[in-house]
Amino acid sequence: MIIEIDQNSGFCFGVVEAIRKAEETLLLLDVLYCLGDIVHNDVEINRLAEKGLITIDHEKYFTMKDATVLLRAHGEPPSTYEYATKNNIKLIDATCPVVLKLQQRIRIGHDSAHNKNTQFVIFGKKGHAEVNGLVGQTNGQAIVLESVYEVEKLDFNRPIELYSQTTKDLEGFHLLAKELKNRATEVPVKIHDTVCRQVANRIPAIRKFSARFELILFVSGQKSSNGKMLFDICQSVNQNSKFISSIEDIDLQWIKNIGSVGVCGATSTPKELLEEVAGAVRKLASENFM
Ligand code: SF4
């Protein structure tokens, strides 16, 4: 049986940097709080928890004082920083530089808009941490659209500025942009393509990869947005694609009579986990079918 790991899968640089900052800080502190999952992957969260990283939610954060808190790559709205200043919370800001730049663009665009009637639109997942951080740059006024089917929420007689959550798919973004241009013919429509190429560039690569194997094992945490998106792409190319979060999810029947297996994952999937999955498949195949 041929088993191959996709070399393009694994952490993006934003996640690598956030984990590096967490580990560096944990060398100096016994306890470090992280606001939200540092990465949407339980295996990695548990590894860092053993070193002293405690994951908290926003409800807990807004009751805390005198602590050190890490902000993950997704970024946070201004209210999180304001609370820290007032409550002696030291922030270790691991917001990805790509997200920081996007937050800044939206904030400046919003604050300096000539026409105060402009609708700021974010193509993204409602309630996602990064999207909340982006909406926060507009004092909560930005309108979040999850797909082109939600455009009726907009007023096509008012100017529009469109941005994207970094991990959304380019195809969906272009579709939405085209629809806005077609519908709002009498007012300015500004399109800002802010899709992160760390994810976008993986799409053609994972498409090619998925087509080469009889079985695809896509490894990701359930909460990862780009994980869901990349898995859908695998499935569209190779119907025999399975979504797993750990080696426990592998079904022996999947590998029966299979000659080749491709193992790939999201930007939040550790390389070690991909290797572990490949190793587990090799072992199961040799113990049961060879
Ligand atoms: S996907 Fe892109 S924007 Fe998001 S954390 Fe990774 S590098 Fe940063």
Structure report:
With 290 residues, the protein is an alpha/beta fold. The protein folds into three domains: 2-10 and 200-288, Cobalt-precorrin-4 Transmethylase, domain 1 (3-Layer(aba) Sandwich); 13-96, Rossmann fold (3-Layer(aba) Sandwich), CATH 3.40.50.11270; 98-197, Cobalt-precorrin-4 Transmethylase, domain 1 (3-Layer(aba) Sandwich). It is built from eleven helices and twelve strands. The protein has helices spanning 13-26, 42-49, 58-61, 78-86, 97-111, 129-136, 170-183, 197-200, 202-211, 225-237, 271-288; strands spanning 2-5, 32-35, 53-56, 68-71, 90-93, 119-123, 143-145, 160-164, 189-191, 215-219, 241-244, 260-265. The strands form three sheets. The chain has a four-stranded parallel β-sheet, with helices on both faces. A four-stranded parallel β-sheet has the order 3-2-4-5, sandwiched between helices. Helix 10 links the parallel strand 10 and strand 11. Helix 9 crosses helix 10. The radius of gyration is 21 Å and the shape is flat. The relative contact order is 0.16. The mean pLDDT is 95. The structure holds iron/sulfur cluster (SF4). Iron/sulfur cluster binds at residues 12-15, 73, 96, 98-99, 166-167, 196, 198-199, 267.
